[in-house]
Design a protein that fits this description.
Pectate Lyase C-like; mainly beta; 9 strands; 216 residues; 1 helix
Amino acid sequence: MKNEIFEHVDFSGQDLSGQYYSHCQFLGCRFDRCNLTDAIFEHCSFVEPGAEGACSFSFSKLADARFEHCKMAMVNFKGADCLGVVFNQCDLKGADFSQASFSNQINHKTFFCSAVFTDCNLSYVNLSRARLEDCKLSGNRWTEANLSGASLQGSDLSRGEFSPESWYQCQLQNADLRHCDLVGLDIRRVDVTGIKITQWQQHELLAQLGIEVEAD
C-alpha cells in the first residue's frame, strides 16, 4: 500500500502481519494489540502535526517488523513484543518503550535478544529496564534517553551520541563503544569490563582521570 492517509483509524486487534506500507501517513491511529509480524513500513509518518499525542502500538506484536525512514516521535510502544524489530533511520524522539520486550525467554536462566536500532533519533526515548543485549544499536542519538535499569551488554553502540548521565543508568559490559563521545564516563564508577574503544578514546577516558598520555 502506497501514498495513503489514515486519519484516526483504529486497527486494534487486527492481523496486519506481512503488510507493506510506503509513504503513508497515520494520523492519530491505534495499533494496540495488533499483529504486525513481518510488516514493513517505509517512509511513513505516525505523527500528527500540532497534536499532543501520536499513534499507539501498545501491547502489539512487532516480531520481525521493519520501520525504515519513519517519523515516530512520541509513539507509544508500551508492552509491545519487539523481538526482531528493526528501526533504521527513524525519528523516535520521546517514544515510550516501557514494558516492551526485545528478548525471548527460553527458560528461567536462558534468553536471547534480537533488535536493530540504527541511525535513529532516540532522544528522550523511554527504554527503562529494557533488555537489549548483543543487539545492533549503532549510529543513534541517545541524548536524554531514559536508560534506567536497561541492559545493553554486548551490543554495538558504536558512533552513538550519549548524555553524560547515560553511562550511569545502564549496564554496558562488553559493549562496542567505538567512535562514541565518552564525555562524562568515569571508569571508576562504571563497570566497563570488555568494552571496545579506539585509541583516541583511550586518551579521552584517561584525561578525565587526570592522566596525560604522551607519545613514546
